[in-house]
Amino acid sequence: MKRSLLVKAIRGFVKLFFRIILRFQAWILLRNKEIRSVEIHNILILAYIGIGDMIMFTPALKLLRQKFPHAKITLQIGLKNSCEKVVQNSDLIDEIDEVVLDQKFLKFIRHGWRKRNRYQLLISDFHHGFYELAFQILYMNIPIRIGHASSPGFKSVFDFLYNYKIQMQEAEHTILRNLKLLKPLGIDFDIDKEIQNTSLYLSSEDKAFARRYWDEKKLSQEYVIGIQAGTAPLGRWKQWPLEHFQKLIQELLNTGKKVILFGSPGEHPMLENLAQSITPPPILFARDGSFTQSCALIQKCQYMITNDSGLMHVANALGVPLLAIYGPTDYRRTAPLAKTSKILRLGLPCSPCFKLEGEDAVLNCPIQIKCLREIQPEQVLKTLNDSPYFT
Question: Domain extents for the chain?
């Protein structure tokens, strides 16, 4: 107990030390300019975010490109989660700069210094305590810096980095939060239109792969349902119980549907066990293909069923009819909003409890995430059968 308290105290002291250093250097190094006084030729977007968040950023990216059609837009990433593949085949960005987040502060300081004075505009979409990125911003000397700042339910230690601070609201959808980053640039938007305007860009090679795969599995005359039974490793509390997925898939197969199980390579053992518990086993696509190949296969499915996940946003962006199963996550912030998408949730009084301030309420749930666990396979089947997009 004493050891853990000591470690916590040391971490708190280190964070305080870094904040003091950051603020002092910001006072010396940062220069602020008004947008109307700067010609913008090079734009840096910090996107240390997940796949779903990247998809929800695409409406803002499209409007940014329309505003600055000739500017060079660089997307800096570094979580090694393939989020850049959402837009790498588009004209929305010109360069992908991968700087892996690994707590090596000198690396980020050197990176910032090497690119000092290169960019005129920074748009930051990171909300976490990434001190490495904060140091990089200091040394880049970017005159216009727009980022999300402290808001109701969210305290940021990096407000001082931005000369245009954008607040978020607790129940505000992430797409709208991202679009609000464009307001200082004089970019107007129709929220009802843009909130359904997410995109994912597939290459011709990925689409050709999907056609070959469909032919190989003899799926061209079948009704194919894609299912993602897993979630990101740090978000397993979003995962509907596997025994519920087992019953659901078995019922779908019994009606003559075909099912493809999608997941990451790390989920392959879990999904293989799930597939082997079903007769006949569904098709499993988790280990042998790339992220974009999975997306191309999803595009060919007639329907998709997922947890709250990155592949949920993939299906939504590709226009594939979708049912997403929600538990503690705040559906007001992340729900798929295409007309062909629907969410299913119990709506308990205590949910959603995963909010801007973090996941502590979820991890300490006194009723063991009942809001997700008690959604029954029969409820999912009824919701599917009531959908005009499910046949």
Answer: 13-194, 204-386
Judge if pTM exceeds 0.90: yes
Asked whether the domain spanning 204-386 has the same topology as the one spanning 13-194, the reply is yes
Q: What is the pLDDT of residues 49-103, one digit of tens each?
A: 999 999 999 999 999 999 999 999 999 999 999 999 999 999 999 999 999 988 7
Residues 6+ apart with CB under 8 A from 37: none
**What CATH number should be reported for the domain whose range is 204-386?**
3.40.50.2000
Residue ranges of the alpha helices (H) in the chain?
A: 2-29, 51-67, 105-114, 131-140, 174-180, 191-194, 204-216, 242-254, 268-276, 291-300, 310-318, 331-334, 360-363, 370-373, 377-386
Axis crossing angle, helix 268-276 with helix 242-254, rounded to the nearest 10: 50
Of 298, 333, 335, 334, give the one whose Cα is nearest residue 319: 298
Q: What is the CATH number of domain 13-194?
A: 3.40.50.2000
Angstrom distance (rounded) from CA 171 to CA 162: 23
The pLDDT tens digits for 201-250 are 999 999 999 999 999 999 999 999 999 999 887 788 899 999 999 999 99
